[in-house]
Amino acid sequence: MDRVSEAGDYSRPVGKYPKVTDCDFSGAETDGALMARVAAGDRQAFGVLYRRYAPILGRYLLRLLKSRELTEEALNDVMLASWHNAGRFDSSYRLSSWLFGIAHKKGLKTLKRASRQSAGPDDGELEELARRVSRTTRRTTKRRNKIWTAMNGAERSPKRSRLCLASIAP
Fold first, then answer.
1. Angstrom distances, CA of residue 47 to CA of 24, 52, 95
2. What region does 115 belong to: left with phi over 0, alpha with psi -120 to 50, or beta?
3. Which residues contact 43 (CB under 8 A, 6 or more apart)?
4. What CATH number has the domain spanning 3-118?
5. Domain coordinates in residue numbering, the chain
6. Are the C-beta atoms of 121 and 136 separated by less than 8 Å?
7. Which end of the chain is more exposed for a tag (fewer CB within 10 A), N or C?
8. 8 A C-beta contact, residue 85 and residue 118
9. DSSP secondary structure code for residue 22 in this structure
């Protein structure tokens, strides 16, 4: 199995927390040099970055998000952000810290977005819905009472019944 297809395997046990030593450093180009190439738009360098850090970032995100689909989404966001912001990376810091910071922020955003999508209406929306149902129920009850009155009065005064029914027609 090649390293690219292994990048999506986040289930491999690595102890309690993922470690940077779990990353693929074959070819051993320094992170600073690698990011300089990524900042210059080198797609091969980005591929190396992805193969090196996607497995560990994916495992971290899977622990945070507890969903493979959300993990894939967040990991794509992290890698896209690293591609777009590679020029901002300061090589005096560790690349793994920079990437984990991005991963944490993207993971939290993904969680927030997922909870908004799965959440039902909030209390304000429920109160408004209850008010509308209450108004509709009151109107329906008034109409029903008018119809009942008209039906009961039809025997005594057909003309009054017709007028009463005409007043409730929409």
1. 12, 8, 15
2. alpha
3. none
4. 1.10.1740.10
5. 3-118, 123-168
6. no
7. C
8. no
9. G
**pTM to 2 decimal places:** 0.58
In the numeric block, the tokens 């003309």 are attached to: 159
Burial class (CB in 10 A: 0-12, 13-18, 19+), 27: exposed
What does the CA dihedral 90, 91, 96, 99 come to, rounded to 10 degrees? 30
- The two tokens of residue 24 are 């693929």
Question: Which tens digits make up the pLDDT trace of 87-136?
Answer: 999 988 999 999 999 999 999 999 988 887 776 666 677 677 777 777 77
The encoded tokens of residue 42 equal 């080198």
Provide the residue type at 116 as one letter.
R
Extract the tokens encoding 105. Answer: 């922020």
What type of residue is 66? K
